[in-house]
Amino acid sequence: MPDAPIDLRSDTVTRPTPGMRRAMADAEVGDDVYGEDPTVTTLEREVAERFGREAALFTPTGVMANQVALRVLAAPGTEVVLEAAAHIVAYEAGAHAQLGGLQFRTVDAPGGTLTAELVRAALRPPSFPYTTSALVCLEQTSNRWGGTVYDLDTIDGVRAVADEAGIGVYIDGARIWNASVAAGVPVDEYGRRADALMFSASKGLGCPVGSIVVGDRDLVDEARHWRRLYGGAMRQVGVLAAAVRYALEHHVDRLAEDHANARLIADVVAAAQPAAVQPATVATNMVYLDTGEHLASDLVAALGTEDGVLVGSMGPHLLRLVTHLDVDEAACRRAADAIARRLGA
Ligand code: TLP
């Protein structure tokens, strides 16, 4: 039987581990729409505590978590400041415009990092005839910019500008646990700097489903209303919440292995093809590769069909590789060798 492919397209492709499946099978459940699923309630309480906030809300997806949070934080017709390639702008099917009535003020930020200066320049003056700036969104880690991490000073700078303007700060923290592990910053440091944030359990933490919004009690209550409106209020969902509780206990510290494997891939590829990647830019579990004269789509096809290595194309000459708990060091080395060979061909 041929080896299973080495799947580096995303950290969303993981399958629940045997331990996680056992935790799911054993979960106590009830109807969460009645507030009667003890596992969901416990998870939401534990997550809120870990982020130093009052409350949390379990949602089916990261896209829904972002949507319900933004519904609370920015009224229809107001403007939200984001980095131009942010997931909320680029990959959420236009949901925030269509369903939330929001206008985006996108900012080209070097390396994908919004700074206090960039945010200040993007805010509208609070006078006629300008539209109203309502919110700044940061992405931790930044997906399109290679898993880079906002440091606390930069977040503080953005927060200060937002406070001056009397507007909110939201963190799309789909991979905030990767940031926390890479930077050695406990997640409550992020939690108390934002009006609200979300993280995804279905990415590096290895769960099949789920994202969680964190914030004040009032904000979360209102987000719960929007979750219902979007069709995301779920019933005996403790089986999924149990997976998240398991992951928070067993799969956080090990994210460091994913980061080391991402760096390994970059090192191996750069040793053969220095123009493809600068290993020092790999901060967490993502590697972006410049394919030079090769078309990324050709490489994706050849790697997939001939080498059993699955990677994503993020542009005509750009590949994305994401490490996760289903690919070990040996698999990453094999994948990197195959990629280096093809880039050199
Ligand atoms: N990102 C996915 C794709 O949609 C691109 C991936 O493979 O990286 N915020 C950020 C920063 C994300 O990267 C993602 C998913 C989401 C939100 C949405 O999460 P889901 O897919 O659970 O709705």
How would you describe the overall organization of this protein?
- With 345 residues, the chain is of the alpha/beta class.
- It folds into two domains: 18-249, 3-Layer(aba) Sandwich (Aspartate Aminotransferase, domain 2), CATH 3.40.640.10; 254-344, Alpha-Beta Complex (Aspartate Aminotransferase, domain 1).
- 43% of the residues lie in helices and 16% in strands.
- The chain is built from 14 helices and twelve strands.
- The protein has helices at 18-25, 38-50, 62-73, 87-90, 95-98, 116-122, 152-165, 176-183, 187-191, 217-229, 238-250, 255-272, 296-307, 329-344, and strands at 6-7, 55-59, 79-83, 103-107, 133-139, 168-172, 196-200, 211-215, 286-290, 309-310, 312-315, 318-322.
- The strands form three sheets. Strands 2-8-7-6-5-3-4 form a seven-stranded mixed beta sheet, sandwiched between helices. A three-stranded antiparallel beta sheet has the order 9-12-11.
- β5, α7 and β6 form a beta-alpha-beta unit.
- The protein is globular, with a radius of gyration of 20 Å.
- It starts with 5 loop residues before the first strand and ends with a helix.
- The mean pLDDT is 97.
Summarize the entry for a quick read:
The protein contains 14 helices and twelve strands. It has 345 residues and is an alpha/beta fold. The strands form three sheets. The chain has a seven-stranded mixed beta sheet, with helices on both faces. The protein has a three-stranded antiparallel beta sheet with strand order 9-12-11. It has a two-stranded parallel ribbon with strand order 1-10.
